[in-house]
Amino acid sequence: MHNTILILGANGRLGAVAAIAFADAGWNVFAQVRRGSAFRHARITPVRIPLEHTDALAKSCGGTRAVLHAVNVPYTRWGAEMLPLGRLGMDVAQRLGATFMLPGNVYGYGASMPSRLTPETPERPTAEKGRIRVALESEMHHRAVSGLESVVIRAGDFFGCGPGSWFDRVILRSVVAGKLVYPGPLDVAHAWAYVPDLARAFVAVAQGPRLRGFSALGFPGHNATGGQLLSALEIAALQVGFRPRRGRFRWGSFPWPIVRLGALVVPTFRELAEVSYLWERPHALDGMALERRVGTLPQTPLIEALAAALQSFLENSKRVA
């Protein structure tokens, strides 16, 4: 008998990659999508029922053991949509008697966060997005009383397998101009999560022992200073055959003063400025709790992951052009 999972937001970058990862691991996958699906896998069944229709969605996905809430909410709509959509995802999981799985981040730790982040590190959010994430996890913890089994896997900034992250919008976008732009000091360590590796971590947790109550796990991913990341990206660019016109990349910094000034009138700039501390505070996620639960997980080497992400970005840029 095969396990079954419902992935909410399967059109998004993590949702799409996770759908393939679960299917390849032998799971039957209900992929909830808002629009036409390009999935071509025998174990993946697209479900085009809106998340707000929780009863119909749960009824169509009977037998589901886990629900992965991979719904992607744009930064500018977090305040209005993140919590309501998260609660709907929990509603679906409770109707199915399934484990609710949430990809988390480090926003909840706030601007005073220590350099090593464990599931036990106190969350002291200093930005609205951090307070929203803490509220969402608090809801999961509260619902454990009424029987919801849930787990959040906290990870660093996403990269790979599609647009939408800091890595794509700032760092890779500068590559095509022969320049490498980094949002913070080059000597500060930052946490990164290669999306295919994170997706496999969710598979491993779902296949493990049944969870009880609420659990929080850290996904270690890659931890690198800005200088280390840009140096690795230069090597990755050569591996995929991309060479800047001038023979070598110029390194540059992100125009934070302009962003902070523009934040007064541009909503996206305001949202970016709110979490600028993430680039100023060194931080890494401790993965010991995750390893204790599922064992040592394979990790894609950084240069290999960067090369794949860059290749995908360049191909997508050609299609758009």
Overview of the structural elements:
The protein has 321 residues and is α/β, with parallel strands linked by helices. The protein has a domain at 4-156 and 194-221 and 283-297: NAD(P)-binding Rossmann-like Domain (Rossmann fold, 3-Layer(aba) Sandwich), CATH 3.40.50. Helices cover 41% and strands 18% of the residues. It has 11 helices and 14 strands. The strands form 4 sheets. Strands 3-2-1-4-5-7-11 form a 7-stranded parallel sheet, with helices on both faces. Helix 1 (13-24) links the parallel strand 1 (4-8) and strand 2. Helix 3 (78-96) runs parallel beside helix 4 (128-143). The termini are far apart.
Question: What does this entry show, briefly?
Answer:
By secondary structure, this protein is of the alpha/beta class. 41% of the residues lie in helices and 18% in strands. The protein has a domain at 4-156 and 194-221 and 283-297: NAD(P)-binding Rossmann-like Domain (Rossmann fold), CATH 3.40.50.720.
The count of DSSP E runs of length 2 or more, i.e. the number of strands, is 14
Give the oligomer, counting copies of the same chain as homo and different chains as hetero.
single chain
Please state how the strands of the largest beta sheet are arranged side by side: 3-2-1-4-5-7-11
What string, H for helix and E for strand, traces the elements in order? Answer: EHEEHEHEEHEEHEEHEEHEHHEHH
Q: What general form does the structure show?
A: globular
CATH class call of one domain = Alpha Beta
Structural class, by secondary structure, is alpha/beta
**Alpha plus pi helix count:** 11
Radius of gyration: 19 Å
Give the terminus-to-terminus CA distance.
46 Å
Helicity level, as a percent range?
A: 40-55%
Average pLDDT taken over every residue: 91
Largest sheet: 7 strands, parallel
Q: Residue ranges: pLDDT <50 for 5 or more in a row? A: none
Fourth-tier CATH superfamily name of one domain: NAD(P)-binding Rossmann-like Domain
**CATH domain fold name of one domain:** Rossmann fold
